[in-house]
Amino acid sequence: MQTFVIGLTGGVxxxxxxxxxxxxxxxxxxxxxxxxxxxLAGRGVxxxxxxxxxxxxxxxxxxIRGADALVFAAGSNAGARAVTDAVxxxxxxxxxxAARRAGVPRFVSVSVLPEAQRELVLDEDVEHYYAVxxxxxxxxxxxxxxxxxxxxxLLVDGPGAGTITLGPAALHGQVARADVATTVxxxxxxxxxxxxxxxxxxxxxxxRDAVRANVRTALG
Length: 220
Fold this sequence. Notes:
Blueprint: E1 2-6, H1 11-22, E2 26-31, H2 34-41, E3 46-49, H3 57-64, E4 69-72, H4 81-102, E5 106-110, H5 124-141, E6 146-152, E7 154-156, E8 163-167, E9 174-176, H6 177-188, E10 196-202, E11 205-206, H7 207-212, H8 215-219
Parallel strand pairs: 1-2, 1-4, 2-3, 4-5, 5-6, 6-10, 7-9
Antiparallel strand pairs: 8-10, 8-11
Helix pairs in contact: 1-6, 3-4, 4-5
Pfam families: NAD_binding_10
InterPro entries: NAD(P)-bd_dom, NAD(P)-bd_dom_sf
Protein name: SDR family oxidoreductase
């Protein structure tokens, strides 16, 4: 499988690249700087240089053409509104249209679990981030692509547990970025899961088993 990753150098994206390479897959992606491209080439990852916030759909389609799947793992991490709008809003919309134009049907979006951090007092920028992410989820769900929206809980660094909770609805807590990356890799290799929203949290089920347990939902 050849997968193109938007957000290739982010916390989830770079871990995902490693997971896919371990599967024997071909990994490509988008980076902002030539130095990043050169570093990734040493790992066997091919990268195109471009800025998601300024590229149009045709330019992005040219970069991703030939891939079997597109993963959108970019995000503003609830930063300033303008960045959220550019990356999580317009950036995702551009990626959806680019996938259509490039003939790349499989699209996995790493979104956010809407209830994450709700026990905290969230500022307006964070609330805006959640709202934009939801609009993006809807836009992808309304597309004709072979999509999956993955909504993880609060992301944390550190080693993955290798076990998760995954399903149409999950309680929120926190989940390691490493486990999110492994889950995305498993979803990419399970074509029977399509046109689904799946929520992800830490749990006790091995990741591969948790992914396969959702195949019946896809067929239902």
